[in-house]
Amino acid sequence: MPLRETLARVDADLAASRVPVARQRLRGLVSSFPFDLTLRRRLAEVYRLYGDAAEAGRWMYLEEDRNADETAAFEARYGSPGWRMKALAWRGPEAMAATSFAEGQLVAVRTACAEELGHPVDWDDPASYRDGLEEKCEAPSEPWTVGGVLAGVGCLVGALAFLAIWVNGVVALFD
């Protein structure tokens, strides 16, 4: 699906309060267009709707006007440079960054990771920094947020409703 069409769907999802769907669409776009800082910024805005400062900080990490509290939350959740490299979901050379600030952030994370591991690492080769993920710290855990709990409850209610409809259909077959 083209970028503009997907962004229009994101806008429609947000207008209809389908925040989880909008978030997933934006995550897909960031994966497809890792150099587009505006997509990362939009994803940070969605995470703010959830009240998730660490994820907002994650997606604003390459922006000069980022929020210091969100940045600190991101750095605390993703405590090692290897985890930050993985979390930033960057691909390619840092020179592809849209701004010199973003390029500097990417270089700093990669350099810190290489220094910690004692060998060169590369954004396009997750195996080069995988040791930093397995040995240095556990997978980051995310605290529960009101939005996350509500999304989970909504999924549970939807699943139960589907199950009830299905059971009624099966019972009707035998009547």
Gist of the model:
The chain has nine helices and no strands. It is mostly helical and 175 residues long. The radius of gyration is 20 Å and the shape is elongated.
Number of strands: 0
Radius of gyration equals 20 Å
Distance between the termini: 45 Å
User: What's the mean pLDDT score?
Assistant: 86
Please report which band the strand proportion falls in: under 5%, 5-15%, 15-25%, 25-35%, 35-45% or over 45%. under 5%
Shape: elongated
Percent helix: 55-70%
SSE string, helices as H and strands as E: HHHHHHHHH
Q: How would you describe this structure to a colleague?
A:
This protein is an all-alpha fold and 175 residues long. It is 69% helix and 0% strand. It is built from 9 helices and no strands. The protein has helices at 3-15, 19-32, 37-50, 53-60, 68-77, 81-88, 100-117, 127-134, 146-173. Helix 2 packs antiparallel against helix 3, helix 4 packs across helix 5 and helix 6 (81-88) crosses helix 8. The longest helix has 28 residues, at 146-173. The radius of gyration is 20 Å and the shape is elongated. The chain starts with a helix and ends with a helix. Mean pLDDT is 86; it is low at 135-139.
